[in-house]
Amino acid sequence: NILKRFEGADNIQIRSTSDQQSGAFAMLAAVRIDFIIEYPESVNMPEIMQNIVPVPLEEIPIMAFGHVACAKSVWGAKAIKAINKALVKLRPTVEYRSAYEKTLSADQTQVYRKYYNEVFLKPSE
């Protein structure tokens, strides 16, 4: 809601691709910008993050779900069906969970595992 209120302002820039992330954090570390809104688990730059303090925001969920997209075609529909079937089978496994955990810090792993167990493993309604 805060970002919507100031949308279009000259001092607000929205960047959403990962290749831009390292540049934005370098600018933050050099005090060329004041803050960045980002999920902590998506920041994997210890050399930059050592002097930066993350501050949780109430409006941002603890974790975000990812999505897979395919072309709107017969092939795409078949691919999505196969992907969904595989994910339903794999998501309760330790191998599935630990693949993402390898990218997280110890603190983030605790948060992720709680979310994984309480939210992600719930059956779809």
Structural class: mainly alpha
* Largest beta-sheet characterization: none
Low-confidence stretches: none
Which value, in Å, is the CA radius of gyration?
A: 18 Å
The helix content, as a percent range, equals 40-55%
**Distance between the amino and carboxyl termini:** 28 Å
Number of strands: 0
H and E string: HHHHHH
Mean pLDDT: 80
How many helical stretches? Answer: 6
% residues in beta strands: under 5%
What does this structure look like?
The chain has 125 residues and is mainly alpha-helical. The chain contains 6 helices and no strands. The two termini are 28 Å apart. The relative contact order is 0.09.
Quick tags:
125 residues; mainly alpha; 6 helices
Please render the helix and strand layout as text.
Blueprint: H1 2-5, H2 18-29, H3 46-49, H4 74-90, H5 94-101, H6 106-120
How would you concisely characterize the structure shown here?
By secondary structure, the protein is an all-alpha fold. It has helices at residues 2-5, 18-29, 46-49, 74-90, 94-101, 106-120.
